[in-house]
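Hey, can you fold this one?
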Amino acid sequence: MAIFSVYVVNKAGGLIYQLDHYAPRADTEKTFSFPLDLVLRPHDERVVVAFGQRDGIRVGHAVLAINGTEVNGRFTADGKDVLEFLNNPANYPVSIRFGRHRLSSNEKLMLASMFHSLFAIGSQLSPEVGSSGIEMLETDTFKLHCFQTLTGIKFMVLADPRQTGIDALLRKIYEIYSDFALKNPFYSLEMPIRCELFDQNLKLALEVAEKAGPFGPGS
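Sure. Predicted structure:
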């Protein structure tokens, strides 16, 4: 079981803190001969597998590196167009590393803002007055848990679907936020959280939650 990441969103929908705690390694590197037996397509400014699966390479995986050179979007770090390079028989055999796309800082900001809007929509769609909004989203690979404070700050945790004790963890994160961010004289409300003690105590809380599940008294 694992906790993947933590997001803190202010009442205006802005991302003020994000931590990637654990990312499953799904990278696969293989050497290919021409022609490439995978169909690649550009998608959202990156090159992804559109058809064909083999040896751990799945549809949706992005090209991360070619011959050891990192790929940034649709180009290698030395400026070569990925699709043009792979369509040239002279460049084979070639080593390609595929894997799950890593979200950029801008993408994380955008997704946090989108969830803020979905949370508000969920609250308004409720047949009951005073609904709390979306508290959990579940997929086959992770669950997104959300806790909103009375002041509108949202704490979001993405975790393995089997991970227990997330409700207690969210309350613990709120406690850490109150102790090490709000009580920090150099911290301004609604602004990005840059407090070393907040980082340290949050990481410790995530480790405790992964190993022991719910927090006990005095934790």
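The longest helix spans residues 105-125. Let me know if you want another pass with a different chain boundary.
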